[in-house]
Amino acid sequence: MPLVSIITPSWNVEGLIEETIRSVQSQTFADWELLIADDCSTDNTPGIIADIGERDPRVKLIRQAKNGGPALARQASIDAAQGRYLAFLDSDDLWLPEKLERQLAFAKEKRAALSYTAFRRINETNTVTGRLIAVPASLSYGQLLKNTAIATLTAMVDREISGPIAMKNEGYDDFCLWLSILERGHTAYGLNEDLARYRVRGSSVSSRPVRSAKWVWQIYRNVEQLSLIRSAWCFAHWGARAWLKRREF
């Protein structure tokens, strides 16, 4: 069985998915499987994935029966995953070649249920925009409630330490997952190395800040069931950090 299962949802990314897959195939660590759950794309995204999978059996296409959004697609990949470690990569983002090797060594050293790394943003033409997005050395549950530090494409979960995991069908399902792991008493550890590229697209699910803020508030109140006062306190900190993170300098 592979050591690392890579969890990737896809939908209508025929112009980007091959490059994302190539960034995984270029990893210096090769003991992985890439599980791409296609959410009923209407373009040639599944065809591209299937064609690459014929040449590299580590790349596996999962076809969703109906369009249900990224949370359900990620869950389909998790359900099929064989690896001890789950690494998350969206279908338009990229990893640098040493990402898995460096993060695995770090996660093992820290015995981390959840780890994450620094990254840079790119635009649709692969031009790096803005600064390195650095990350804190560690985050507890309470700290993560007020933070935006764990970007999905940098996250890795050790299932032997974290215990069972499942996605919630919410906006920011990834944030819900990280909170559910840390709420059990685990600490997340950050590797402050530039190992990934987050692509900013106008059509991406997380590209609208007002909607993102609404999702976070709903998570505080409906999922985590925080009090109104604690929700407001966490939201103020989260909003300030989100604004700083979006700045390009």
TrEMBL record:
The keyword Magnesium does not apply. GO terms for molecular function: hexosyltransferase activity. InterPro entries: Glyco_trans_2-like, Nucleotide-diphossugar_trans. Keywords: Transferase. It holds the Pfam family Glycos_transf_2. It comes from the Bacteria. Residues 5-134 form the Glycosyltransferase 2-like domain. PANTHER family: GLYCOSYLTRANSFERASE (PTHR22916), UDP-GLCNAC:BETAGAL BETA-1,3-N-ACETYLGLUCOSAMINYLTRANSFERASE-LIKE PROTEIN 1 (PTHR22916:SF3). This is Glycosyl transferase.
